Amino acid sequence: MKTRINRSVRLATLGLMTGSALLAGGVAQAQEQGTVNLAYVEWSSEVASTNVIAAVLEQEGYEVNMTSLSAAAMFQALSTGDADAIVAAWLPTTHADYMERIEGDVKDLGPNLDGTKLGLVVPEYTDVDSIADLNDNAELFDNEIIGIDPGAGLMSLTEKVVDTYDLDLNLRSGSGATMTAALDSAINNEEDIVVTSWTPHWMFARWDLKYLDDPEEVYGGAEQIHTVVRNGFEDDMPGAYAILDAFEWTPEQMGEVMLMNQEDGSDPYENAKQWVEENQDVVEQWLDS
């Protein structure tokens, strides 16, 4: 699911800045206010993470502009300085080509989330644990795998899975929305279903699910989501740089925010502010690093 946002996050509470300080290199330094320009792609995971780090930066006295771009434009904006930072670089595979093109203009601060994954997912109650066992249980799933958009990389990988395991199940394309709707219906009726999915995704926060083992490792290993900043950002805004450098959370925490964003009429930025307010123990780890 993709959520669209393109707003300036305005400085909300100047009073919070009174006496606030940032520990940088073990020395408390008073923060300077400034504007941080964040770019992101409209993936539900990146909507969640970008809004959360924006809410934290705003809490610490910064003004934050968030701009939704295509992946190519996002990395280009970072290389030209039109964007200061992103928390949305999927590495080492998904965004590798973009990073190679601009590596001299940016600094990779490392992963802010570890444990991304692609694969086939079933409800926890389903008595199947491996892709290799799907043929023997094909009738449980009406002889089909529920997929997403036909052009998605996940679907191409799943086509390879079907060939590699010589599956008798048909891969049915649709969209992220139709996939989660089918999953919702099956679980409500305590039926078995197998779907294409990935982590982080809000559905893991809503339902008890499990990945099927992939003994042939067709889906490959896990990726990480990295924070990347433009060259010179550390010198220009050392306080904001330190916060972005320390930003790190789990797929489960991201899933909480993503699930909040699925509510009808909800505002991803307001949801991010609520999560930040309710998880100050986590946020303090980013501020005190």
Topology diagram in text:
Layout: E1 8-9, E2 21-24, E3 27-30, E4 35-40, H1 44-59, E5 63-68, H2 71-80, E6 85-91, H3 96-102, E7 106-114, E8 117-123, E9 144-146, H4 153-164, E10 170-172, H5 176-188, E11 195-199, H6 203-206, E12 209-211, E13 224-230, H7 233-236, H8 238-246, H9 251-260, H10 268-278, H11 280-287
Parallel strand pairs: 4-5, 9-10
Antiparallel strand pairs: 1-5, 2-3, 6-13, 7-13, 8-11, 8-12
Helix pairs in contact: 1-9, 1-10, 9-10
How does this model look, in words?
There is one protein chain. The chain has about 290 residues and is an alpha+beta fold. The chain folds into two domains: about 35-115 and about 225-285, D-Maltodextrin-Binding Protein, domain 2, CATH 3.40.190.10; about 115-210, D-Maltodextrin-Binding Protein, domain 2, CATH 3.40.190. Helices cover about 35% and strands about 25% of the residues. The protein contains eleven helices and 13 strands. The chain has helices at about 45-60, 70-80, 95-100, 155-165, 175-190, 205, 235, 240-245, 250-260, 270-280, 280-285, and strands at about 10, 20-25, 25-30, 35-40, 65-70, 85-90, 105-115, 115-125, 145, 170, 195-200, 210, 225-230. The strands form five sheets. Strands 1-5-4 form a three-stranded mixed sheet. Strands 6-13-7 form a three-stranded antiparallel sheet, sandwiched between helices. A three-stranded antiparallel sheet has the order 11-8-12, sandwiched between helices. Helix 1 (about 45-60) links the parallel strand 4 (about 35-40) and strand 5 (about 65-70). The radius of gyration is 21 Å and the shape is globular. The two termini are about 35 Å apart. The model is unreliable at about 1-30 (pLDDT under 50).
